[in-house]
Design a protein that fits this description.
The complex is a heterodimer of chains A (about 325) and B (about 350). Chain A has about 325 residues and is mostly helical. Helix content of chain A is about 75%, strand content about 0%. Chain B is built from 13 helices and 12 strands. The longest helix of chain B has 18 residues, at about 190-205. In chain B, a hairpin with a 2-residue loop joins β4 (about 65-70) and β5 (about 75). Classes of the chains: A mainly alpha (about 325), B alpha/beta (about 350). The structure holds adenosine-5'-diphosphate and magnesium ion. Magnesium ion binds near residues 48, 49, 180 and 181 of chain B.
Chain lengths: ~325, ~350
């Protein structure tokens, strides 16, 4: 197992290398440059040229890339073009809120998707099934920004149950309860989107298991139907569902960027949007790299979990 | 003569589908005494499995017992509430299936799956249940039972898994064991070992067995008496010796002729019954077998034959108009005896 993990990480390195080249090109192809984005109106052309030279933006792209890469290899992610803080410091300030939001969203997604998916499969073609299939369709097709704005309108403006955004009440003392109160809406919005696609996986996965011979064996022991489904069937159905988390990570990252922006959640997503706006190349590149690492890592974790959940699978 | 353990009376089982209902098993009647083995034989699709699943009441969502009764002890299983039925399954009646490769849950250990049953029906602690499971595994001839109990099913061969299924099925000392084609999926040597094991355990425990197979060889080896099924009905019922010595129903004869015999000249062609089992939706009028029967006459084509008794003690029955005279004769003889 250990060898397998090491091998997978070694295979992932060239992929990461490719991702960095690709995203470096795309980031630099975007119109505008960091200097123009933050310049004040009375700066002269000479000032701009000077600034560009100072940031190394006049060098050929490959020189800039190699400079960036050698920095990364030395653990140096550089300094933000717009705030002039160390990129690593900015990321470490913001990673906590993002992980909190994503983690809560995943938990919500599972809490919604697993029971609904099971009910929908065990009562195939009933009204429950149609209802949950419709829910999942809505969850998949409604964009996060729309759901987010709708949720703010209903829960924050009309009923005034939850705050409209942020992570803590301004001027408040903070604390867990306050953060939790701010967390609920964005996590629900993000979680519902993921739950939509997950319901479909759970449903089809359970349906596939329901015809298996070993369930008949379980029933022939005199087991209650509840255990037949929730022990024997579910445990098998969960195996493919585990892979879905791996596949959902990119979706989750994309969703978090939008959700954080709408709810003013001070996480990495918001930082990404800000650094796109200011063409803050070092920060953007760091964010891209992190997203790529997260996706590759989640695939690896998925495969490892797979072998834990299914005794028939052993890696070597 | 000891009394019956199981009395199945005019069982009719149906399945609902979107087009209506199909009757899969009709007018199946048989009795079974403690320790006795009844063989149920017939081509595939003729209702053997549905008959056995009816006894277990495991017909799924679309299947149901439409008519008839299944008496076990004082209870009619056809009428019993589900909660009571659960107490009987795995405890008083247990079952082993055709596919040992898929009948065990791949994600739980052998021990987990055995103990689940043992803890459900027997008053044992977890530790005792584990000891008991090991003891059962040893009984069915599984080597290294202490280790196997911690293994997952995929580590075992088909024959070993079927042994596990048998160990599990016999754990709660059931009165009735239903074995639905238990050796069909296994190769010949393993098949012989499993049958040998079942015979040995039957002797030790006095469990009655419903042995289902499409293979007359298996039936001859195991059964005390035999039901021959065709298209959802019993077409012949007889003591195993009577059936093999004097098969009556043209379908039974056809089945016998299609078994290969070692002593025969290998050039002699193996007979087989022409045609196929009619589908439930297109059941012929009259005798269900008449379309494939070489002896069919006008009556066979138009009137449904009842199961006729053709010997004195009601032990050999056949659903065939060709034996009507013989049946009348028996009736007359019995009448005379009664009057005398
Ligand atoms: N779950 C089911 N739904 C509908 N029809 C079924 C079902 N199970 C069995 N049948 C039908 O019942 C008939 C008898 O099947 P079965 O008892 O499995 O035959 P076999 O003698 O080979 O065991 C077949 O025609 C089959 O199509
Ligand atoms: Mg069958």
């Amino acid at each position: 197992m250990f060898q397998y993990i090491v091998r997978r990480i070694l295979i992932a390195l060239p992929v990461l290398f490719g991702v960095t080249i690709f995203s470096f090109l795309i980031v630099n192809m975007a119109p505008g440059n960091p200097v123009e984005m933050q310049i004040n109106p009375d700066a002269t052309a000479a000032d701009i040229a000077l600034k560009k030279e100072a940031l190394g933006l006049n060098d050929p792209l490959y020189v800039q890339y190699v400079r960036w890469l050698s920095g990364i290899l030395h653990g140096n992610f550089g300094f933000s073009f717009s705030t002039h803080q160390a990129v690593t410091g900015m990321i470490s300030d913001r990673i906590g809120p993002t992980l909190l939001l994503m983690g809560t969203a995943i938990i919500i997604a599972y809490l919604i998707a697993i029971p609904i998916g099971i009910l929908s499969a065990t009562r195939q073609y009933s009204w429950m099934d149609y209802l949950s299939t419709s829910f999942s369709f809505l969850g998949i097709s409604i964009p996060h920004f729309f759901l987010g704005l709708g949720a703010i309108y209903v829960f924050s403006i009309v009923f005034q149950i939850f705050p409209t955004g942020g992570m803590n009440t301004l001027g408040g003392t903070g604390g867990f309860a306050d953060t939790f109160n701010h967390l609920i809406l964005p996590a629900l919005v993000l979680g519902t989107g993921i739950a939509g696609s997950m319901v479909r996986y759970v449903r089809s996965s359970v349906l596939e298991i329901l015809g298996q011979d070993y369930l008949r064996t379980a029933r022939s022991k005199g087991l209650k139907e509840f255990f037949v489904i929730n022990k024997h069937a579910l445990r098998n159905a969960l195996i493919p569902i585990i892979t879905v988390i791996g596949m959902d990570i990119p979706l989750l990252i994309g969703g978090a960027v939008v959700t954080e922006q709408i709810f003013q959640w001070p996480g990495l997503g918001q930082l990404t949007i800000q650094s796109i706006g200011s063409r803050d190349y070092p920060t953007l590149m760091a964010m891209n790299l992190m997203a790529a690492v997260a996706v590759l890592l989640s695939n690896l974790i998925t495969d490892v979990l797979y072998s834990v959940a299914d005794p028939r699978i052993k890696y070597n | 003569m000891s009394s019956n353990l199981l009395e199945v009376e005019k069982l009719q089982t149906a399945f609902k589908n979107d087009k209506g209902e199909v009757i899969s098993v009709d007018e199946v009647t048989f009795n079974l005494k403690p320790g006795e083995t009844i063989g149920i034989v017939g081509e595939s699709g003729c209702g053997k499995s549905v008959t056995s699943l009816s006894v277990m009441r495991l017909l799924g969502k679309s299947g149901y017992i439409k008519k008839g009764s299944i008496k076990l002890g004082g209870n009619d299983l056809a009428q019993l509430p589900e909660a009571h039925m659960r107490h009987i399954r795995g405890n008083e009646i247990s079952m082993i299936f055709q596919e040992p490769m898929t009948s065990l849950n791949p994600v739980f250990t052998i021990g987990n799956q055995m103990m689940e049953l043992i803890l459900l029906h027997m008053k044992l602690s977890k530790k005792e249940a584990k000891m008991y499971a090991i003891e059962m595994l040893k009984k069915v001839g599984i080597p290294r039972a202490e280790e196997i109990i911690h293994e997952y099913p995929h580590k075992l061969s088909g024959g070993m898994r079927q042994r596990v299924m048998i160990a599990m099925a016999l754990s709660c000392k059931p009165k009735l064991l239903i074995a639905d084609e238990p050796t069909t999926a296994l190769d010949v040597t393993i098949q012989a070992q499993i049958l040998e094991l079942m015979k040995k355990l039957r002797q030790e425990s006095n469990t009655a067995i419903m042995m289902i197979s499409h293979d007359l060889g298996v039936i001859a080896e195991m059964a005390d008496k035999v039901l021959v099924m065709y298209a959802g009905q019993v077409v012949e019922e007889a003591d195993v010796f009577a059936l093999f010595d004097e098969p009556k129903h043209p379908y039974t004869k056809g089945l016998m002729e299609s078994i290969p015999h070692l002593e025969y000249d290998s050039h002699e062609r193996l007979a087989s019954i022409p045609g196929t089992v009619p589908t439930l939706k297109h059941m012929p009028k009259g005798c269900r077998f008449h379309t494939r029967c070489p002896f069919a006459n006008e009556k066979c084509k138009n009137e449904k034959p009842p199961l006729l008794s053709i010997n004195q003690h009601d032990e050999h029955k056949v659903r065939c108009w060709l034996y009507e005279d013989q049946h009348q004769q028996i009736l007359a003889d019995t009448q005379r005896e009664v009057h005398a």
